[in-house]
Structures are given as C-alpha cells and as structure tokens.
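Example 3.2
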Amino acid sequence: MEEKEFQELFRKKIHLELGRFEHDMLKKEAEDVYYNAYRIECMNDIFECLCEMSRKMEVPVVKELLVFPSLLAFLCEQWIKREDSHMEEIRACVGREITDLCKKHAVCE
C-alpha cells in the first residue's frame, strides 16, 4: 500500500467514527443533543483537523492511528478536559466594548 492509500484509509476510518457518533447523537432526546452541542462541534472540528493533517502524515503515523480505537472520541475528550481561555477572551472583549460604548455616549466616568 502506498502513502496516499494509507492516508485515504485513515480519512475513511475517522469518517466512519464521526458517522457513528452522529448516528448515536440523533438517537438522543433533543435536550441531550442540546447538552452535547459543544461535544458535537468539537468532534466535527477535530475530524476536519485530522483530515487536513492526514495529507501530510507519514505512513508509520497513519498506521498507528489506524489501529487506535475511537480516535475522534479520545481526542475530543482530551480537548474538553483542557483549560481554555475562551470565556476569558469573551469577558475581555465584552468589557472593552461596554467601556467604548459608555465613552461614546458619555455615561462612563
């Protein structure tokens, strides 16, 4: 098997994993789907990221990832566990915008 064939096989693997995840989500109640919205977004983002990265992956890496069970779910869990600065960035942006609005309308000191 050639490099491109391994890469394509890897993309098929993660596509199947994503499809299985989506199928499972569609069986859930609407409230559960809503509760899992961030997880759904993360799974799709990780899938897209892996698809892009796979085009440059070397065969030994692809082979290792091909046999890793539930790779997307694993990577999603790792991402969700990480601390991120998303809310801090939103608070900072909102704070700046409120300050600018107040200054513009002369309601701030």
